[in-house]
Structure to design on (1560 residues):
């Protein structure tokens, strides 16, 4: 028996997996600790020890005991490390006496049960306060570290008597039968049954539950277990986030949770993500979820200046300034039960981000670093030079045009044998990726702290020195008074993100350049212009620098006024500052157009967003005979202030001074903006839990927002959720044995959307760009319109959760139907009003329905080999149910009633005419060319039909493999959108070789042509349904392989853990998509990168 | 529940109640620092005045109808008539081909921009009247300017698009579904606005620091004279133009190269180019330094000048590229620069002579008509006119208007339309595209989509 050694290794691996070992260890620990704290007077054992030694380490003494008695000594290596070696001489000493001598000076205690001796740290437990009168039972509940837990329910089995532990974890039960059995239960802990067996004092140590059903989920203003939750919530824990070499934490969610759609617009660092929870609800207003980091709302949109021409990345994602390593968990709240308490901000779902907190215990230092590289996932197969020549010659032949120096420089002026793979040249690089994190945490029962520092760098695949560097600091301090009544917690993280990008994404040009284009850059790095202004290297001469400082801080104060009443106040402040510089040096201009230093310019922009929030809250609860009632009430006060200025500086004498505004010959203000947003709410929640079987959850919020005019500022939102845990019914237990858990839940309620601009109800005037006669002018910018109000989303949810075979398999299936009405649209106005549109509530209804399934399964669980899988799938459906007067609205050519909002109305391409070789369209006019909008007859849906992910964790001893397959079934926009007419100068995908060549050919690609009618038909086909193809894909999204060095080897080094790992992101993609990457579906922007890294993690 | 708990609860609920009740105020925010609410715009003279100067600033910086640039009435109407040859494609080409689609974006902006100024004018008229804190001279001045601007925009709308709605309020619910009024009804509104403006506006340029860059009484008079001419009210046209011709503060510039300079003696109303580093858009877009990418003068216009016409020699220049000569308007001499010496001309005295010549011809005052024509001709170095009866004088006036006012605010297009000569002149030139209905531009689609009762012009 070498159980003692096993304990050590299990502890180390406990973060990553369950194993049979840990189950055993936990159960044993639970059992022993319980027994120990029951303070059973030890029965005498007849075992005797003979020992003689000087300065013998405890460890060795234990093995002597094991040898002589056949008992097993059960201990954690860390607990005995500080103990002094033993000098002792005994002969046939009774075991207990011997142990007492051994532990005389050590801070250790022991307990003997059966054939096992459990050694633990001695706790300085405070003596129980009151002498116990007969009939009363006094007790104390602590966690495994000995910290008291308050609010634990202690119920006496077979009676209606129950009580709760107070702030010091203590409780009293009066008039007890001392043979009673107590059921001790608390959220997030394993319940315990304790037989009193005549005792009047008990100490109970609760163990954190490792059952998925008891997993704590963060919800609005509180926590709940998965078992008792009435809402629809998906959770992603830090272990899944840390397995992914991504710098934007939102990217780590792709494929891991149901109901959330994430699309990466580009592979450039800092790029925007399109994130939707359960589909698009709003036609014209925002569809972004509401993000909350540690209780502080986080900006949903980029604060990037509208005056900076963001051709590089559409806008900088605010999430790029958050360090994924600081995150403990991300909760995605989806249904009304979970989101209605956020009222007007919850319509599009809520994403709660919880950062890591300090933990009590020995000071722990964790160092984690990885480095690697990224490269483009997929490139396009393009024509080589001889194919391009062939295409061009055929085009001229088809057109009966003679190639000349002016219309065919590629054939006449350029070397027709030269070949450059421009994709390889421009996008073929490897972007270096590096990441390092240091976390120090520790504390005691009253105070815990965490300090973490991180650094992340990510280059680009382009030539040149570009990339993103991010440094972050994260601090958490939690402290409580000795009586545990008063608690404070302060969390802050600060990130500086320095993103240095080029002036434009050269991807589009890399694809378009003819393969025999002469050199575009000379040996000195100067640009050459053989092809007009089509020189992608010009973007590399221009710079787009974004420097973002982001601070998010939160303070939480709570006071337990009564055992049942707690007051809390949450204070938050966040500040994001962004500086942008975009340069246009002379060296990036084609000199043929006569540019001079006067034409150089740089745009400068500063933006800042400051948010503060105060949320006072009170929690009250009461235990009834069979039920528990929890009530929460609170209020929110929030203010956002956004300020931005953009300047344009022109005329730099020297390209080197472009980032210095002082070197410009003139500076103009492009624009300035200032907006204030204030938000106020009162909210409440009533949760009624009957026998942990029937749960009702009622939430409500009254919201006021400054975005609405007088009289329209306040609105009410609310939801009712219910859950029925069928498996707790007595009849159930007898009937379906293998289904260990079954639950039905549902909710219905409303939430709102106020994602519209500020001040839109006012008739306002804005300063003109330029003065007149040196006097500033004003012009009207909005109509007086105080009548619009909130968008309202009515959400219905029905769900079932099932656990099978001891909850080794957990399945949840959700059906939802969200209907978003009172749509805030820009009501299109006739120009005779002087304005184009006015904000307006239209009784249009958008419906999102869908099925979601999440499955986790422990496939194999042995001490050496473990395999767990999880699978999720979402099947969303979107539909425009009603839109009054759609035909006469600005959306007449965009939407169709009864169809999803993701449709596109396109010309219907009927194929290539076998006689002319040109695309044909289904048209009303006889000329064969479609007219807008009458011929928009091709209706295509670009929404995702279904999507999801399959992840597996396989561990064998110290080796662990995790991988995630993401799958998406969708249609998308293919290459046709991004190319010119095949036959004109410029490269094409090899797909075009299947073109029409002679009358009678039946093909899908029209004939090669460099001018005339073919260009027209190609142009129309770009707005035709032929640009839509299947864009489904399966992607090995993430792979992580790690090896932990056996703890046995580390024992003497003082290092608790060393783990070596490899991480890979976007490793391979299986798709039939006719384009570059099926995710971003855009041949003019860089596809998402494949990233490969190796790293090491050490814990001291 | 113990009393203690009850008390705590009561306190807590009271607290929450107080907080929430206090909150109505909390979410009532003041407007952005970068915007001003209407009510505070019109409570002081300076900000109220800034709305009118803001309109002139917008007119000159929006690249639109009054800018003198490529999307201005000067360019578009010049192309639709026989003044300018177009080299651009797309929406601009439709103007020169007289095949404008109702979806044409430039046509839509032309329409929308005018209505945005009409909205602003209506807002000024309404708010100034309601304001008690503005000084009375400023009230008079702003109301006069706003009425003038409403008339000015309506004048171009009615000439370019035909019958238009009479928009006199700022209520979008009214204006969104307003129907077209008759041309005469609109002209009556224009005449009423201009007569009011004449009474309200000052007779000097002191309110604009002596510069002729904001409309005053004389601008209202000049436009009124033109409107009477357009409505065949010869007597009043003569009356109004005579007021200006007899006004000694205006005179025909003797040197025709000084007419378009800032505040020239002939100028009645000019607009200041206000984009830093640029002079007039006419200069910027007309003056050629290579093969034209936008427009050049039509050979017909160039050859229509009489021998020795100073205007042909000074107001037209050319460039020869690869053996091909391109002519361009050279009234404005500066393409771009730093010292602002030229302003964009809107109303000038020469037009008043031509208005009076035409009005006198119709009133059979041939000698008076001749003397007005000769004033213009002699300045251009030409001998007295030989026309001596109504038909010949009318043709002489038409010829003189073409030579004097070419590429200024679409005079030629408007003249051919109002005199019913468009078919005769443009038909042969613009065949096969030309149709009689092309004299009106189409009502933009966006107007029709938002108001199904709004009718389209014939031919579209």
């Amino acid at each position: 028996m070498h159980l003692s050694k096993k304990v050590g290794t299990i502890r180390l691996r406990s973060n990553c997996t369950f194993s049979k070992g840990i189950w055993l260890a936990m159960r044993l620990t639970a059992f022993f600790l319980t027994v120990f704290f029951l303070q059973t007077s030890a029965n005498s054992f007849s075992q005797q020890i003979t020992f003689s030694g000087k300065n013998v380490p405890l460890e060795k003494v234990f093995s002597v005991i094991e040898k002589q008695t056949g008992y097993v000594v059960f201990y954690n290596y860390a607990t005995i490390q500080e103990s002094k070696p033993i000098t002792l001489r005994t002969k046939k000493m009774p075991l207990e006496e011997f142990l007492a001598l051994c532990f005389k000076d050590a801070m250790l205690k022991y307990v003997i049960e059966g054939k096992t001796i459990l050694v633990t740290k001695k706790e300085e437990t405070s003596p129980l306060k009151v002498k116990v009168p007969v009939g009363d039972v006094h007790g104390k509940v602590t966690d495994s570290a000995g910290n008291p837990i308050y609010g634990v329910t202690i119920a006496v089995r077979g009676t209606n008597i129950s009580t709760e532990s107070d702030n010091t974890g203590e409780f009293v039960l009066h008039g007890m039968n001392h043979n009673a059995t107590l059921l001790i239960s608390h959220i997030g802990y394993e319940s315990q049954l304790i037989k009193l067996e005549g005792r009047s004092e008990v100490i109970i140590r609760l163990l954190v539950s490792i059952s998925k059903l008891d997993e704590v989920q963060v919800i609005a203003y509180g926590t709940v277990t998965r078992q008792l939750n009435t809402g629809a919530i998906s959770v992603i824990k830090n272990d899944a986030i840390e397995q992914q070499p991504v710098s934007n934490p939102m990217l780590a969610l792709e494929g891991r949770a149901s109901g959330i759609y994430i699309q990466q617009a580009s592979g450039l660092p800092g790029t925007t993500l399109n994130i939707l929870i359960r589909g698009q609800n709003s036609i014209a207003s925002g569809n972004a979820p509401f993000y909350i980091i540690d209780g502080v709302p986080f900006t949903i949109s980029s604060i990037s200046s509208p005056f900076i021409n963001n051709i590089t990345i559409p806008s900088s994602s605010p999430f790029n300034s958050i360090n994924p390593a600081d995150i403990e968990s991300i909760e995605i709240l989806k249904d009304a039960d979970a989101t209605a308490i956020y009222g007007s901000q919850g319509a599009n779902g809520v994403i709660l981000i919880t950062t890591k907190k300090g933990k009590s215990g020995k000071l722990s230092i964790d160092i984690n670093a990885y480095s690697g590289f990224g490269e483009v996932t997929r490139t396009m197969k393009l024509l080589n030079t001889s194919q391009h020549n062939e295409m061009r010659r055929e085009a001229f032949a088809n057109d009966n045009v003679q190639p000349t120096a002016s219309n065919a420089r590629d054939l006449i002026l350029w070397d027709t044998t030269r070949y450059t793979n421009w994709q390889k040249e421009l996008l073929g690089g490897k972007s270096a990726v590096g990441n390092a994190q240091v976390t120090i945490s520790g504390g005691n029962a009253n105070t815990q702290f965490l300090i973490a520092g991180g650094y992340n760098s990510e280059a680009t695949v382009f030539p040149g020195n570009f990339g993103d560097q991010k440094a972050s600091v994260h601090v958490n301090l939690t402290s409580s008074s000795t009586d545990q009544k008063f608690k404070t917690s302060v969390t802050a993280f600060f990130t500086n993100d320095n993103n240095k990008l080029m002036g434009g994404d050269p991807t589009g040009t890399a694809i378009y350049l003819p393969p025999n284009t002469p050199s575009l850059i000379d040996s000195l790095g100067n640009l050459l212009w053989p092809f007009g202004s089509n020189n992608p290297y010009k973007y590399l001469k221009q710079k787009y620098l974004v420097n973002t400082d982001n601070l998010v801080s939160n303070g939480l104060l709570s006071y337990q006024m009564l055992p049942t009443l707690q007051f809390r106040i949450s204070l938050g402040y966040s500040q994001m500052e962004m500086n942008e510089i975009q340069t246009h040096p002379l060296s990036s201009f084609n000199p043929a157009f006569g540019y001079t230093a006067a034409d150089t310019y740089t745009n400068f922009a500063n933006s800042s967003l400051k948010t503060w929030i105060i949320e006072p809250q009170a929690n009250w609860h009461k235990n009834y005979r069979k039920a528990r009632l929890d009530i929460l009430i609170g209020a929110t006060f929030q203010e956002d202030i956004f300020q931005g200025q953009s300047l344009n500086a022109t005329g730099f004498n020297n390209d080197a001074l472009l980032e210095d505004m002082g070197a410009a010959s003139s500076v103009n203000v492009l624009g300035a903006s200032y907006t204030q947003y204030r938000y106020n709410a009162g909210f409440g929640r009533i949760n009624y839990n009957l026998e942990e079987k029937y749960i009702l959850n009622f939430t409500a919020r009254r919201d006021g927002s400054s975005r609405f005019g007088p009289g329209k500022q306040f609105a009410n939102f609310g939801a009712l959720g219910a859950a029925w845990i069928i498996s707790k019914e007595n009849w159930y237990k007898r009937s379906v044995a293998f289904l260990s858990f079954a639950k039905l839940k549902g909710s219905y309620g409303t939430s709102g959307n106020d994602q519209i601009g500020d001040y839109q109800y006012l008739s306002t005037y804005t300063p003109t760009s330029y003065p007149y006669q040196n006097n500033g002018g004003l012009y009207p910018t909005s109509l007086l319109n105080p009548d619009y109000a909130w968008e309202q989303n009515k959400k219905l949810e029905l769900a079932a959760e099932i656990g099978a075979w001891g909850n080794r398999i957990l399945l949840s299936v959700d059906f939802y139907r969200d209907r978003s009405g009172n749509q805030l649209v820009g009501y299109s106005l006739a120009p005779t009003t002087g304005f184009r549109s006015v904000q307006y509530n239209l009784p249009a209804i958008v419906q999102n329905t869908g099925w979601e399934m999440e499955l986790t399964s422990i496939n194999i669980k042995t001490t050496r080999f473990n395999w767990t899988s999880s699978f999720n799938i979402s099947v969303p459906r979107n539909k425009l149910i009603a839109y009054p007067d759609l035909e006469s609205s600005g959306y007449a050519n965009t939407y169709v009633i009864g169809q999803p909002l993701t449709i596109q109305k396109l010309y219907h391409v009927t194929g290539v005419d076998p006689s002319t070789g040109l695309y044909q369209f289904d048209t009303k006019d006889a000329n064969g060319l479609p007219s807008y909008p009458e011929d928009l007859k091709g209706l295509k849906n670009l929404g995702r039909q279904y999507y999801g992910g399959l992840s597996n964790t396989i561990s064998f001893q110290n080796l662990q493999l995790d991988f995630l397959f993401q799958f998406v079934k969708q249609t998308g926009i293919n290459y046709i959108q991004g190319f010119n007419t095949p036959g004109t100068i410029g490269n094409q995908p090899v797909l075009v070789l299947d073109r029409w060549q002679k009358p009678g050919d039946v093909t899908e690609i029209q004939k090669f042509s460099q001018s005339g009618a073919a260009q027209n038909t190609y142009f129309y086909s770009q707005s035709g349904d032929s640009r839509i193809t299947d864009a489904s894909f399966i992607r090995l999204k993430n792979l992580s392989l790690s090896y932990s060095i056996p703890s046995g080897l580390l024992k003497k080094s003082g290092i608790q853990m060393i783990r070596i790992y490899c991480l890979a992101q976007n490793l391979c993609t299986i798709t039939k998509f006719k384009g570059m990457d099926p995710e971003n579906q855009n041949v003019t922007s860089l596809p998402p990168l494949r990233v490969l890294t190796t790293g090491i993690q050490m814990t001291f | 529940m113990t009393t203690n708990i009850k008390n705590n609860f009561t306190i807590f609920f009271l607290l929450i109640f107080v907080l929430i009740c206090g909150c109505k105020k909390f979410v009532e925010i003041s407007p952005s620092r970068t915007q001003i609410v209407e009510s505070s715009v019109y409570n002081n003279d300076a900000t109220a005045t800034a709305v009118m100067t803001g309109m002139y600033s917008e007119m000159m910086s929006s690249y639109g109808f009054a800018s003198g640039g490529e999307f201005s009435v000067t360019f578009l109407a010049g192309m639709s008539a026989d003044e300018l040859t177009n080299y651009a494609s797309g929406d601009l080409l439709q103007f020169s081909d007289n095949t404008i689609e109702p979806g044409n974006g430039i046509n839509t902006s032309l329409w929308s921009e005018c209505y945005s100024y009409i909205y602003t004018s209506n807002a000024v008229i309404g708010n100034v009247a309601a304001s008690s804190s503005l000084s009375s001279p400023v009230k008079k001045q702003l109301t006069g300017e706003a009425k003038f601007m409403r008339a000015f925009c309506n004048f171009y709308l009615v000439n370019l698009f035909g019958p238009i709605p009479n928009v006199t309020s700022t209520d979008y619910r009214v204006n969104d579904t307003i129907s077209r009024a008759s041309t005469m009804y609109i002209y009556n509104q224009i005449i009423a606005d201009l007569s009011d403006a004449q009474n309200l506006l000052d007779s000097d340029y002191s309110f604009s620091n002596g510069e002729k860059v904001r409309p005053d009484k004389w601008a209202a008079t000049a436009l009124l004279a033109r409107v009477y001419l357009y409505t065949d009210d010869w007597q009043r046209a003569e009356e109004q133009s005579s007021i200006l011709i007899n006004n000694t503060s205006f005179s025909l510039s003797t040197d025709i190269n000084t007419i378009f300079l800032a505040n020239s003696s002939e100028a009645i109303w000019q607009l200041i180019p206000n984009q830093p580093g640029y002079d007039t858009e006419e200069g910027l877009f007309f003056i050629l330094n290579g093969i034209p990418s936008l427009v050049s003068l039509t050979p017909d216009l160039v050859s229509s000048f009489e021998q020795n016409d100073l205007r042909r020699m000074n107001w037209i220049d050319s460039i020869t590229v690869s053996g091909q000569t391109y002519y361009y308007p050279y009234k404005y001499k500066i393409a771009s620069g730093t010292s602002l010496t030229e302003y964009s001309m809107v109303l000038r005295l020469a037009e008043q002579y031509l208005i009076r010549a035409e009005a006198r011809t119709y009133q059979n005052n041939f000698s008076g008509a001749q003397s007005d024509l000769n004033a213009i001709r002699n300045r251009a170095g030409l001998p007295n006119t030989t026309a001596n009866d109504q038909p010949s004088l009318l043709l002489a006036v038409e010829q003189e208007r073409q030579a004097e006012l070419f590429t200024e605010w679409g005079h030629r297009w408007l003249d051919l339309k109002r005199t019913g000569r468009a078919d005769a002149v443009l038909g042969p030139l613009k065949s096969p595209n030309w149709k009689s209905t092309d004299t009106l531009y189409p009502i933009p689609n966006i107007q029709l989509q938002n108001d199904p009762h709004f009718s389209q012009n014939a031919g579209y």
About this structure: Chain B touches chain A through 73 residues (CB under 8 Å).
